[in-house]
Amino acid sequence: DQQVKQNSPSLSVQEGRISILNCDYTNSMFDYFLWYKKYPAEGPTFLISISSIKDKNEDGRFTVFLNKSAKHLSLHIVPSQPGDSAVYFCAASAGYGGSQGNLIFGKGTKLSVKP
Amino acid sequence: EAGVAQSPRYKIIEKRQSVAFWCNPISGHATLYWYQQILGQGPKLLIQFQNNGVVDDSQLPKDRFSAERLKGVDSTLKIQPAKLEDSAVYLCASSSTRATGTQYFGPGTRLTVL
Fold first, then answer.
1. Which residue of A6, A50, B14, B90 sits 20 to 30 Å from the alpha carbon of A28, by its own alpha carbon?
2. From CA A35, how far away is CA A37, in angstroms rounded?
3. Omega prior to B107 cis, within 30 of 0
4. Which residue in the set B42, B100, B101 is minimally distant from A107, CB to CB?
């Protein structure tokens, strides 16, 4: 049973446009969400996170939106750049600030930004 | 600040052989994680250490996998004997605390079992 789902295996976007990557989760105990970016032959790199007490977090070109009632989060990249081409993983954990911290990952979405 | 180091980067073995992976976390990070990432999937947690103690190994196949973190710094993950389905990338990650959830990953070891 997949607790974190990224239903789009791939996404292609033109340079300069917005990229929107989506993630759904099923476990209502999740209270901390993260996005990681992964280039080939490298480990995942932390990108941005959001706790369940917020509905938006912004860092430069990257914004994460959280809709708790829909159990849905999205990552917006504006403007998209060719260097953003990578696999993006959504991850969630339960017990932020508490005793957990284990991350549950989605399967990833491969983003291709075309010049 | 140096990142998480892992070695080897690549390993090819025959089934039923044994293999070991090494991880050196970011300096000062008390929590260390080992993940298995099968092609086309997201990383799956195998084991979590807090200092040199095991916090969670519920998803570690203990009949063939073992891990240790002596002295609370470096860690090794061993598979003995390996099966074909163990072919994957093994990722090590560390974080300063368990609570923050922000984990920093090493480059991984790609294991191929023939």
1. B90
2. 7
3. no
4. B42
Q: Report chain B residues whose CB lies below 8 A from the CB of A7.
A: none
Instruction: Quickly count: other Cβ atoms within 10 Å of residue A49's Cβ.
Output: 20
Residue A70: pLDDT band with limits 50, 70, 90: very high
Span B49-74, pLDDT tens digits = 988 899 889 999 999 999 999 888 99
Measured distance CA(B42)–CA(A59) in Å, rounded: 24
Rounded mean pLDDT of B2-19? 96
Please state, in angstroms and rounded to a whole number, the distance separating the CA atoms of residues B69 and B61: 17
pLDDT at res. B70:
82
- Check whether A6 has a pLDDT greater than 90: yes
* C-alpha to C-alpha distance for A39 and A83, rounded to whole angstroms: 10
Of A58, A37, A33, the C-alpha closest to B105 is A37
* Tokens 């190994």, residue located: B57
Please tell me if residue B23 touches chain A, with a CB cutoff of 8 Å: no
Q: Which of A43, A93, A107 sits opposite B108 (nearest CB)?
A: A43
- To the nearest 5 percent, what fractions of chain B are helix, strand and coil? 5, 50, 45
Tokens 């368990």 — which residue?
B98
Q: Under a CB-based contact definition with an 8 Å cutoff, are residues B21 and B106 in contact? A: no
